[in-house]
Hints:
This protein is mainly alpha-helical and 353 residues long.
Amino acid sequence: MDRAPSTIAWAVLAMSRPSHLLLVAWVYALGVAIAYASGAAYDPRTLVAGLAALLPAAASIHYVNEYADHETDALTTRTPFSGGSGALPRTGLTPKLALSLALGTLLVGVVVTGYLYTEEFLSRPAVGLLALGALLGWAYSLPPVALAWRGLGELDTAVVGGLVLPQYGVAVAAGGLSRTALLATVPFSILVFVNLLAVMWPDREADAEVGKRTLATRLSPRWLRRLYLGGVLATFVALAAFTGGVLPRPVALASYAIVPLLAWGLARTRKRKIHSRRCSRWWSSPSPRASPGSTSRASTSSTETVLRSCCAPSSSPSRCTATGAGRFSERRRICAGGRRCPPFRRSRRETTA
């Protein structure tokens, strides 16, 4: 494993996901713009203060996701929007580095937020929304909640990125919240959910192998496309309903420019069949126990079972056994026959390396 300072520095930067932090800043700016359009007074110091409190919290969410998803990230093919940063699999650094960075940046965010609140740069609603966003962001990745592993990660991210984050921008700029500002972000939040259905698609096979039950692994491609189309329809219904009242007409009309991107996202789900719909054999990959002091790219047990496929529905009888494998000790029910795999289950005892 390369422990050169330059390698560690690159990993620290990559795992913070700078492009995603820029996107977070953009959504924050969207909330600020809504506040200004509603008559809030311009104060550049307050805006900088709000961003200074936001970025450490957002970075901590990215770091904790790198820690929780390092097994998936080692198996999947990265895209600009999915698969994590790939820093841990590429460098072989321990996942504990990501967890330490997550705790450190969260602590920085708490200290900065507390200071800015006492100096009256941040209002109470802004602090509350920032805390809510951080809580939901961590709950996305880590047990005991681990929403991403229970099919609720897409909804969680849509709430955080589509509602909480822009409302935080509103609260920073205006000092409070308003019903109009909340309604103005509803179409955007639905669109975030739709986008996540497409973003999760490339990771579905790797997620299924480690027991991460996202909607892309739970649903068949047909039902995933139906949900996608339903979300698109709901987005434009909400957009039409709010045009002229909540949303200015030019803003609403400009929103229709995203239609080609939505069509492209739908087309992506037709490229390959979802992994869990194929029927093939399970096979195991014994992993020797790491020697004391050694570090592996992913913490695994000595009897780790790598799940390479899922059984498709069949009338043939099947016999199922359970084995512990992967982070958070996934209890995987392994089909020896030809029916579809039962849902993954968790055990409380962690797997040790």
